[in-house]
Design goal:
Radius of gyration: 18 Å
Helix content: 10-25%
Low-confidence stretches: 190-197
Strand content: 35-45%
Number of domains: 2
Distance between the termini: 12 Å
Order of helices and strands: HEEEEEEEHEEEHEEEE
CATH topology of the largest domain: Alpha-Beta Plaits
Number of helices: 3
Strand order of the largest sheet: 1-2-5-4-3-6
Mean pLDDT: 92
CATH architecture of the largest domain: 2-Layer Sandwich
Length: 222
């Protein structure tokens, strides 16, 4: 395993579990135990069949898809987010070369990344102070602030919750305590009294920023 924090984070994110039990099915409406980061336009799997999401009710954990659900599936799955890391400038350049379908939802690790090396007798090799951005596509022109919350902030908040829960159980991470959360409607450069005035990437995105310190060991046998 490569001994750098971004690689370890990417491996963790790609291996996250986004499968939930189905509670009930009524035509095209499916109630699940956890909708995770599903939103309008997401592709989800019920059993072994894929469907496109029409809408999500986050208060009731119900997903409406574009066709009646066939058979009697018992599980629901959504793909993990994409992962990017780097300075804003470098990441913006990278994203300009990536297909839209391979960008969002994303977890973006902003660099410069600060780490604190640990004592020789520590169980961990480093503690990484991470600025992580959980971002999804947004409509900056037509959406109200409430629309950003309904269509992007809510699913990204669910993704944050899943990330923290699974990170706390991950074998290469230590105890994760308190963490900071900042909501970004129209993610970009922020100015007091004006809000976000310019996109950082060449994308219209909204989501959640999480500031968290993660103790990390580079080898599972350590």
């Amino acid at each position: 395993m490569a001994k750098v924090v971004p690689d370890i984070l990417q491996s963790f994110i790609e291996g996250m579990n986004f499968t939930s039990k189905i509670v009930s099915i009524a035509g095209a409406v499916v109630e699940v135990e956890n909708v995770f980061h599903a939103r309008k336009g997401s592709v989800v799997t019920f059993g072994a069949t894929q469907y496109t999401v029409v809408s999500v009710d986050y208060s009731t954990e119900k997903i409406t898809v574009s066709a009646n659900v066939s058979g009697s599936p018992t599980s629901y799955t959504i793909a993990p987010p994409f992962f990017f890391h780097g300075t804003p400038y470098a990441t913006s350049t990278q994203l300009s070369r990536v297909k839209s379908a391979d960008k969002v939802p994303m977890i973006y690790l902003m660099e410069i990344l600060r780490e604190k090396g640990q004592a020789e007798d520590s169980r961990f090799d480093t503690v990484a102070d991470c600025s992580l951005f959980f971002l999804d596509v947004a409509n900056g022109k037509d959406w109200s602030t409430d629309d950003h919350y309904s269509n992007a902030i809510m699913p990204m908040r669910n993704l944050v919750n899943a990330f923290i829960e699974q990170a706390r159980a991950y074998s290469l991470f230590g105890e994760i305590g308190e963490y900071d959360i900042i909501t970004h409607v129209k993610f970009g450069q922020f100015q007091d009294l004006k809000g976000h005035v310019q996109s950082i990437f060449n994308e219209l995105l909204s989501g959640i920023e999480v500031g968290v310190s993660i103790p990390i060991k580079f080898c599972c046998n350590c």
